[in-house]
Amino acid sequence: MPLDGFTVVDLSTGIAGAYCTRLLSDGGAHVIKVEPPQGDSLRHWSASGADTGQDGALFSFLAGAKHSVVADPDTDTEFVHTLLAGADAVVWSGGSAVAEHFAPERIRRDHPRLIVTAITPFGLHGPWHDRAATEFTLQAWSGGVFGIGRGSPDLPPAFVGGQVGEYLTGAYASAMTLTSWFARRNGAAGDLLDLSMLETQILGLTYYPVTYFEMLGRPWRDARKVTVPGIASAKDGLVDVGCGTAQQWFDLCAMTGHPEWIDEDSPLSITQQANEKAEEIYAWVKEQTVEEIRDLATAFRIPNAPVANGANVTELDHFVERKSFVTNPRDGFTQPDRPYRLHPVELRPPGPAPRLGEHTERYRSSAPAARPEPADDYRAEALPFSGLRVLDLTTFWAGPSCTHPLAMLGAEVIHVESARRPDGTRLIAGIPVSEPQWWERSPIFSALNTNKSGLTVDLQHAAGRAVLRKLIATADVIVENFTPRVLEQIGLDFDSVRALQPGAIMVRMPGFGLDGPWRDNPAFAYVIEAASGVSWLTGFPERNPYEPYSVGDPNAGVHALNALLLALEHRDRTGEGVLVEAAMVDAALSIAAEQVIEYSAYGALLQRDGNRGPTAAPQNLYRTADIDEFGRLDCWVAIAVATDRQWEALRDALGAPDWASDPALATAAGRREQHDAIDARLGAWCAERSGDAIVEALWPVGVPVAKALQPHRQAELEQLAHRGFFEEVAHPVNPAVRHSTLPVRSTHGPKQFHRRPAPLLGEHNHELLRELGLSDAEIAALEADGVIGSAPG
Fold first, then answer.
1. Which of 242, 450, 554, 563 has the most CB atoms in a 10 Å sphere around its CB?
2. What integer is the mean pLDDT of 403-417?
C-alpha cells in the first residue's frame, strides 16, 4: 500500500483528527491511537443520542484498522515518548488529558524529525488561539452561515448541518501531513503543521468572498434567496434541479414547456429570471414524479439529483451499482466505502476498530524502533512540490481546489483552457462583454489559479489534441474534471496517457464517477450535496432542505489531493503510473457518513433542525440590535453551549437570572428539553445588545460565541490577520486585492503562498509551445486556425 511503513501516532479527539487518521490508514499507514484511561469521547458519541454500548458506530467507522493504546498522562510519559520516537507523524488536537500533556510545540522540540499536525479552532498562536469554539460558531465566524446567499429572507441564516467542517478539517489535515511527508524528497525533515479549523471553513463554505468584494466592489449576494428550482417537492418526494448557467436556464424553460420565457437580451440575471417564474416552476415540479423530472433534466443536460438521506441513500441505483457502501467489519452496520479509487494501487480494506486499550500490552512489551534523526544538511526552505509538473485540465471550483494547493506549494502547474470555451469561472463575474478584457476580471478565477501558467488549446481540433499529447509526455500529473465522455470522445483515456508518459498519474474528478447510471450527468456542487445527503441536514424542519451550494466542490478537491498524494507515494515506490478516480459524490458521501451510519446502526434518521444541533444545547443564532451594512435588522450571533461548565459561565455572564438557575438546566438533556424557552430568553437578551457587546460578555468567560459574519468581511478578523491568511496579489488587469491561502502554517513555510497572479488567457502560449519544440511559424499557424488564442471567440 502507498503508506506501508508510515507510522502515525493519533493524539486527537473528535471527528477532525479521527477522519484525518482514517484517511491515512486507508492509504496503508499504521495508526496507533493513544487514549486516556476513560477512552476517546468519540467512543460514546451518537448524533441521535442512541445507546452506543461499548463503542459508538461513528467511532467504529472512523477508527477502523487502527490500534488502541491506553496511557495515563501522570505515569506514562516515557511510554508515549517511546511511541513518538518510533513514529513518522503525530496528529494532535486538544480535548484529552493525554493530548494536553503533550503540547505540539513540546512534541516538535523533543522529536524534531516528526511531522506534527496540530488541529485547533483558530491556530496555535494569535489573539484567538485559546478561545472556545464549536463547529457552529466557526461557521458563523467564517461567514459560512450566510453561504452564497443561502436561505430565505423570512428566516434566520442557516448553518450547514452534519458537522461537515470537522470532516473538511480532517481531509486538509491528512493532505497537509502527506504533503510534508512528500517534501522529504526535497530534503525537508520534521515539521509542525499548525492547522486552523476556521480557515478550512472559509475555504470550504464560502466562495472567495473577500477577493470578490475587493475586486468588484460588491458582495457576491447581499441577501438570502431560495434557489429556484433548487430542492423542490415533486409528486412523490424531493428532487434537486439546478440552474447555474444561462444555457441551463434556457433548457429549464424548454423542459417545463415555457420556451417563451427565454430572453437572451434580458437585463435580469438568470437567478432573477428564475425567481420571477418560481411559482409556475414549482407548480410544474409538483405535477411530476422525481423519476420523470430526473429523466427529463438528464436529457436536457440540466444538473439534477434525488435528495438523499440516511434511509434512502444506500438504495439509489447509482450507488448500488458502484458498490459505494460496505459493511462495517466489526459491528455490521453500513458505511461509505473509501472516497476515491486508485488503479492499480491497493488501498487498505475496511478493518475492525480496536476496543479500548486492545494493543496496550503489545506496545509496552515491544515498542516500534526509534526512527533515525534527520541529517544535518536538510533543506528546510524547499517547497514540497518543487520539480513536479502538473497539467491542469480542470475548470470551475472542484478541480482547481485540487491543483491550486500544488501550485501554492511549489509545483509547476499549467492550466489548460480553450479560448473558444474558457474556464467557467472566468465567465461568472457579471462583467459586461463591452468592457475591455472582461474575461480577465473574474475574482473567482484569480483566487483559484495563482502561481499557474496559462495555455489555451482547442481540444476539438486535431492540432490542439496533438499539442496536448506533446504536453502530456512532459508531465508528472494530469488532472481533469470533465464528465467522463469528454476525454473518451477525444481519445484521451488512461491507456493513451500511459503510452505517452508511462509514469503519469492521471486524476479524474467526474461528478458521479467513471461508471454507473449517473456517470454522464453534469455535476455542480448543489446536486452533489443533494445526492450525498449533505443538503438533507441543512435548513429548517418546516421547509425543504437548503442547498449548501458550497462544500461539494472544495471537499471534492481536497479529497482528490489526498488521492493524488497516495498515487505519488505509489509511483515513488514502483515507478508505475496511476489512474485516480476521485468522484465528487464519493467524497461527499464520506463527509455525510454519519447519516447512513446512524440509520443502519440504530434505525435513527437524522433530521435538519434549523440552527440547533446534537453537539450543543442551547445552540442557535440570535438576532442582535445591530443594523447591517445594507440597512437591515439582520445581524446575528451564534451561541453554542457544549458543556455544563460552559452553561454555568453563560448563566453567570447573564447575571444569574432566576430562569437560568433552574436546576433542570444544569444538564445537557435538561437544556435540550427546554430549548425553546432558553431561546426565547437568550433571544430577548441579545436583541438589546450589539454583537460586539455579546461577544465581549461571553467569550472571555469561555462560552463559544461568534458574530455571524458577512463572508466578504473575513479579512477584518484579527486572528486571520495575525496568521497572514490573506495575501495581497497584484494583477496586470485587476487591482491588487487580498487572496486567501491555505489553512495551515508550516515550520518550513512558504513565507508567501501567492508568488504570481493567475494567468491571463493564453498568457504562456508561446513560452510553453516553444518548450515543446514548436517553431514560431507553427505557433502562428495555430493562432491563425483558432487552436490557441488570448481572447474568447
1. 563
2. 98
Residue (of 14, 25, 17, 6) closest to 64 by Cα position: 25
Report residue 559 CA to chain centroid gap: 8
Q: CA dihedral defined by 7, 11, 16, 18, rounded to 10 degrees?
A: 60
| Ordered DSSP codes for 260-280 | GG--TT-SS-HHHHHHHTHHH
Which of 523, 563, 556, 557 has the alpha carbon at shortest distance from 449? 557
Residue 513's CB is within 10 A of a number of other CB atoms, namely 23
| Angle between helix 552-574 and helix 525-532 axes, rounded to 10 deg | 90
Neighbours of 307 (CB within 10 A): 25
By the 10 Å C-beta count (0-12 exposed, 13-18 middle, 19+ buried), 217 is classed as exposed
pLDDT tens readout for residues 710-756: 999 999 999 999 999 999 999 999 999 999 999 999 998 899 999 99
> Which one-letter DSSP state was computed for residue 347?
P
| Cα(426)–Cα(416) distance, integer angstroms | 13
Inter-residue long-range contacts of 644-647, CB under 8 Å, 24+ positions, other chains counted: 644/668, 645/702, 646/132, 646/702, 646/703, 646/704, 647/671
Helix 135-142 / helix 197-205 crossing angle, nearest 10 deg = 60
Give CA angle at 169 (754, 212), nearest 5°: 40
Residues 6+ apart with CB under 8 A from 87: 7, 8, 9, 32, 114, 368, 371
d(CA 468, CA 462): 10
Question: Residue 579 — φ and ψ, nearest 5°?
Answer: -100, 120
Answer for the pair 303, 231: CB distance below 8 angstroms, yes or no: no
Report which secondary-structure segment, H or E, holds 406.
helix 398-408
Mean pLDDT for the chain?
95
Distances (CA, A) of 723 to 125, 160, 199: 8, 26, 10
Q: For residues 307 and 290, is the Cβ–Cβ distance under 8 A?
A: no
Is the CB of residue 456 less than 8 Å from the CB of residue 482? no
Q: CA 513 → CA 168, 400, 520, 620, distances in Å? A: 21, 18, 9, 37
Q: Residues 241, 297: contact at Cβ < 8 Å?
A: yes
Cell reading at 538: 441543512
CB 223 within 8 A of CB 149: yes
Residue 115's H or E segment, with its range, is strand 115-120
Domains of the chain: 7-204+350-370 (3.40.50.10540), 243-302 (no CATH), 617-703 (3.30.1540.10)
Indicate the pTM of the whole model: 0.97
Closest by Cα among 622, 478, 494 to 136: 622
Is the model more confident about 524 or about 177? 177
CA distance 498 to 344: 13
